[in-house]
Amino acid sequence: MLLSRLLTWILLAGFGLVGLVLVRAALRSPANATNSVPLAAPLSGANFGLRAATAFFLLVCLVALGLHSYWALLSNGPVSSDPQYARLKGARDQRGRRLSESALRGWVFDRSHLPENALCRYQVVGGRVHREYPLGEYSAHILGYTGFLHGEAGVERAFAAQLKKPAKLWNTFLSSAPVGSDIALSLDFAMQRSAGEQLKTKRGAVVVLRVDTGEILALASSPGFDPKAAEGNEAWDKYVQDTDGQPFLNRALNDYYLPGSTFKTVVATAAIESGLTGQTFTCSAAGYTPPGSGRAIKDDKDEVHGTLNLAKAMEVSCNQYFAQMGVLVGRERLGDVARHYGLFIDESPESARQSRTVKQLWNTESAELDATFNVAQSRMMLSPRVTSYDVALQSIGQGFDQVTVLQMAMIAAAVGRTDGMLVAPALEAERPVKKLGAALTPAAATQLRPMLRAVVEKGTAARAFRGCRIPVAGKTGTAQVSVNGGRDLRIDAWFIGFAPADNPKIAFAVVVEAGGYGGERAAPIARTLVEQAERSGLLALPPPSQ
Hints:
Blueprint: H1 2-27, H2 45-74, H3 83-92, H4 94-102, E1 108-109, E2 121-125, E3 128-132, H5 140-143, E4 145-147, E5 151-153, H6 154-158, H7 160-164, H8 171-174, E6 183-184, H9 189-198, E7 204-210, E8 216-222, H10 234-241, H11 264-273, E9 281-283, E10 306-308, H12 310-316, H13 319-329, H14 331-340, E11 344-346, H15 367-372, E12 379-381, H16 388-394, H17 405-416, E13 421-423, E14 435-438, H18 442-458, H19 462-465, E15 473-483, E16 488-499, E17 506-512, H20 518-535
Parallel strand pairs: 1-6, 11-12
Antiparallel strand pairs: 2-3, 4-5, 7-8, 7-17, 9-10, 13-14, 15-16, 16-17
């Protein structure tokens, strides 16, 4: 674009000079000289032809220069930033689209910056640019797509300006579509591939992030789609028409789930910070009936755990214990702890509830990234009308709680940190840490971590992690969700946690829709991810430079 502007100004100056010479020559023609024939005399054919040719030539020059100046100085200049102009140009100006098709966008690397781990790259085949996505549908929801017909999404949209920005100034003088700048994401290529493979035949989502920095190492959602489909219509239409699978939905960021028993992590935090660690409750065959409700809350398959304390209740995931603990802690205290973990406490009546997105959640300076990756606001429904039964139900992750997979991974990471801080997630590599606030006190985190380790070593996740060389801490979840207008029941499988348990480096959240028990379907996925993290060297990461 710099070269075209420079040539335009040279062309303008040259044509202007030629035009002035022609005008001066026409004005100094014999017809205007003092010793010429009288003014009353008719113009000679030669003089008339010269003036007509001059006028016609100048008109052609003005039209040509006007068109050229528009393309070189206005179509990609200050005018293009006007929204109305941009819409008109997009609808009527196909030149910009043709240039976009032929442009060599920069590569998108993973955290290693290695060419073999590139997440997006291009190839020139037969003089035509082909954008490639080596991980295909495994990374589609994070990398997005770019195409002539369907525009941009994901990273391709969030970093479009940088990817199109010429890597070197001299490139602008050599090509009308110079090679763009490369970017590096926080993703780990092998981790992202592993997450995608684990979800290939399932519906659900996975988020893996660094405990110390909040960097996203893997973010996968299934069903997915082939980013290359954005270049055509037939495959794209099939995705659009799949209203059941919703392949374009990013289930990690934009879908709500009931957290099931993973929410007991939040309730346990409230109990610890309220000094109720040693509090015991009885789990009986009759179940627990909250005051004034007349409805009993029981454990799965009417299991009876007897009298137990907080640590044991976490290990066996006792519903009756945490229902009673939630009522004892109380609505306000539960709301405060959930808020510290990043949840929005919705106190509005049901008729006034609206979908919300988290503002400026990402650790970035890019407003475009924030706008592209809007994250649904996880929330706990605690209007003044909630009953003790509602509080008890929400304390076991049922009822009105609504969370995203990303939010649950952030909660796990906060527990894994020695300072108990909630850290903003980052997609760009090597971002300085952005702390959002204290999720729990360091003392509470110190008490909670061994409880979550016991879940894996001898509790509800023990079978899934038997024989695993890496010590892991986490919490299973099994959420019962009403679907199809309440006619059917779907049971989602959850597992959240961190590893290594004694020195957390990564945190994760896994959900499998209609997966059944979390210990059977979600925990094995988490184990595979932990083992992949070890192979990738992510469990021996040095501390970040501050």
